[in-house]
Known about the structure:
Shape: elongated
Order of helices and strands: HHHHHHHHHHHH
Distance between the termini: 63 Å
Helix content: over 70%
Amino acid sequence: MGLFGLAAALLFLCTFASTRERIQPVSALPAPVWQDIRDLAGNKPWLVLFCLAMVIMITITLRASSAVYYFKYYLQQPQLVGEFLSSYMLALALGAASTPLMTRFLPKKTLMMLLMSLAGVMSLALYFVPPDNITLVFALNLAIGFVLGPKSPLAFSMYADSADYNEWRTGRRATAMTFSAATFSQKLGGALASATIGWVLALLGYVANVEQNAGSQQGILWLMSVIPGIVALLAAAVMWCYPLSEAQVHALQQELAARRVTAEQDVSSTDISGSKT
């Protein structure tokens, strides 16, 4: 963890040193925090994405956190947990890296709905895999990881679109609040998932490090398959409510660009008039 922390710190420093602001704000006056929050509360695309991020994080956290219980008490092969989670993380990374290729063929909204639907169906399918079919368990897990991988690149690119929409609608981008509140929704989703695991296991009589009763084993299987599957399908339904199409985003971005050109011309005219005076 110390090495990971050091690597992260170096990467953050490189990001800070190499990042340049390319969008000049229309107004130099800082917006009050509560104004940003009110803007987001009226920003339907952002509200949909806020709910989406929370729901998706519940799906991912449920599966990752339940894996240890699943392998130890249901599959009876705890030695495979490391390989299971490592291969899952690689599948997530491969899916994320494939996002630009996928978006060449499908709009972001359609792609997100398709991927979450596939994740939901495959998670539900895991419920019917017998405990002795480890190969199929790994295969489904890799496929689920691959289709969940693009969720972060897609979601955060759509957060940028929602910031454009906010600027188009109100004249204020609220970019910092847009992304920081999005991170909050992910943390909230992870917390809800962790709580759900504790509630389900306690309800079904889970006792650590002993042979589990039938109810507890079924609860562990549900936490690994059915519950995250239903939540993933819910994420697809939430994404259906996202109101911005690719054409709409393109149109409002063009209008924003025209507004910025006009604003720069007005500033230049004011400077010239002032200098002549």
